[in-house]
DASH complex subunit DAM1
Amino acid sequence: MSRERKRSTSRTRASRPTTPLRPSSRSPFRESAKSSTGGGPSFPLNAFEPAFAELSDAMADLEANMMHFQLMHESLARFSESFASFMYGLNMNAFCVDYPEGPIPESFRRAKQREEQATTQIPEPKSTGELEGETTYM
């Protein structure tokens, strides 16, 4: 006889699960799936593998395109800032520099008078039938 002590069943035991842990809890998902179904092609999730591979490739392409968009955005932002500075400089230059050859209000009055004189004095066309040497036709 061995000296094993048998536990008395009169004591209340701490509650423990009576069922063993499922295989998915003890091993990674793919291993448990292969072991439970034999890993054959009939496993239901195998049908989605090509679609997920394609999705992964498409997401990688999307990420690359978004990086290119980010670079383009940064380049356009730099250009816009530089061009705005240039335009501001031109605007300030127009206020600070006097252009003596630019038109003044008197220039516009003279141009209007010349236009009015030209409309009142319409020259009569020559009807000699001879062509001038400088005449061109389109």
Summary: Helices lie at 23-26, 29-37, 49-96, 105-120.
